[in-house]
Structures are given as structure tokens and as C-alpha cells.
Amino acid sequence: MDEKHGGPPLRERPRRGPGELEARVLAALGSAPGPVTAGWVRERIDPSLAYTTVVTTLTRLHGKQAVVRRRDGSSYVWRAVFDAAGLAARRMRQILDQESDRGAVLSRFIAELPPDDERLLWLGLDTVSAGTGS
């Protein structure tokens, strides 16, 4: 037992995948009744996590403009701006914005998609077109 963190010893914990903790934090914030504390988030996602781990994750999400915070006494309360899918879409857009030949990048992206993902993309494009009248 890791006394500091209240869970299994660190060496026995499986390593989280990239972005997994951010996604869990955003999901918790998305289900919150309003702006909530880091402690509230920690209790919802994994009470054995160190409080500082949750605060660090929230701070990084704030830097990515995925959450907003406001001072409430001596700490902050947090609210999601994006869900996990919105954050991933924002990252994809930022990468695309760095490229000079956007058409080539998008064409290559589509060409390398697995068939199921390509079908989802086309369905999404049809939905967006229908909703905007384009």
C-alpha cells in the first residue's frame, strides 16, 4: 500500500495511456452540476490519485483552453469548455494550421483512414452539410 497516495504501490499501477487522465477529467467535469473543485474531480475519477496530479492535469487543460477556472476562496473551481472529443478535434486543427499545404495533408489523412473511420468521416460531413444548408 502506498501510504502517500492511498492506492497500490506506484510500481504496481498500470501506466495510463496518452491523454487518458485528461479525458477522464473532462468527462467528470462534463457531468458536474456546475463549476467544481479539483477535490470533487479527484473523488469522481479516482480517489487514490494524488490531489496534485489532478490539479496538474486541470492546469494543463486550462493551458489548452479546454477548461476555465475561477477563484473561489483560496482555491479554484473548474468547468469544461470542451469534452474529450472536442479537445482531440482542437489538437487536430492546431496541427493542420501549422501546415502550408492543407489540401495535401487532408487528402493524405483521408487516404490513410481505416474504412470504418472513413465512413464515419463522410457521415459527419453529410450531417454538417445538411445542418448548414451547404
TrEMBL record:
Pfam families per record: Penicillinase_R
Signal peptide range: none
InterPro entries: BlaI_family, WH-like_DNA-bd_sf, WH_DNA-bd_sf
TM segment ranges: none
Alphabetically ordered keywords of this record: DNA-binding, Transcription, Transcription regulation
Entry's family note: Belongs to the BlaI transcriptional regulatory family.
Name of protein: BlaI/MecI/CopY family transcriptional regulator
Organism: Streptomyces massasporeus
